[in-house]
Amino acid sequence: MKFIIARIKHYWHILNRPAVHLSLGFLTMSGFIAGVIFWGGFNTAMEITNTEKFCIGCHEMQENVYAELQSTIHYSNRSGVRAICSDCHVPHNWTDKVARKMQASKEVWGKIFGTINTREKFEAKRLELAEHEWARLKANDSLECRNCHNFDSMDFTRQSQRAAIQHAGALANGEKTCIDCHKGIAHKLPDIGQSAFH
Length: 198
Description:
Blueprint: H1 2-16, H2 18-21, H3 24-48, H4 52-55, H5 59-63, H6 65-69, H7 85-89, H8 94-105, H9 108-113, H10 119-139, H11 143-146, H12 161-173, H13 178-181
């Protein structure tokens, strides 16, 4: 037992004053390696939380919004390009993605405390949840939409007359963003009357 205690004290002494016992090169290399491991683990965790499997891992999402997405053009279409949850709810560039993940961490409380764990609770909160998401998209100029949809790449001649007029007007005056007109594009609209469209 004395041997183990002596060993622990010896290693604690080394860790307490590493520069006395270890070279600067070793400490620098160890710090670099630890940084690479931390960065790799952090990025791996970020990517795992961006997968569809992760997003629909809880029944609240799978039975509500994911079930609704499956009947939309974002899920199944003639070109076979399918959007997953993170395509529309997480920005692609790194700094905005990290900011969104920090924002989403408070949404975990909903899962922990069961605020939307039944269909009835989800429907009761649907308008509030949708309004938060619409406000977020409005504030960032529909950044997630623009990851795939870009005004500069649109061929207005191949759109319906109404869509072409709306898109050309939005492009010209820059006052509107995608979410202003495209609420309910991937999920059922909550019971809102006309309030969300003004």
